[in-house]
Amino acid sequence: MPIRPDKTLETFDNPHSERDYTIHIRIPEFTCLCPKTGQPDFATLFLDYVPDKQCVELKSLKGYVWSYRDEGAFHEAVTNRILNNLVQACAPRFMRLRAEFNVRGGIDTTVVVEHIKKGWTPPPQVNLP
Less Cβ crowding at N or C end of the chain, within 10 Å? Predict the structure, then answer.
C-alpha cells in the first residue's frame, strides 16, 4: 500500500524502555517551500533521540515529512514545528533535530533544536581507546 502525505505520526511501544539508547535517523529528501518566493527548499534532517515508552514508526515519519512538500515555511519555524510534533507524539527522554538546508543564493542554513525530558539525566559518556 503506497504512503501519502500525512501529518499523523504513529508510534509503537519501545521494546527496551528500561535502557537508554539512541536512535539516529537521516532524512535526506526533506522539502518545503520558501514562504517569500514559493521556490522549493531542500534539506537533510538528522533526528537523534533517546526513546522513553514510545518510538516513532518510520513509515508514518515518511508520510509526515512528505506532508511539508507544498507548504511555505521559514527554516527556523519548520524545524521547531517538526521537533514539537515528534515530542508530542512519542514523549522521548531526549530528542535533537538538525536541519541542514541546501545552499540558496549563496547561503546555507543549519537549524538545531532539542528537547530534554524534565528529570532525565543522560548516562555518562564512555570513551574507548
Answer: C
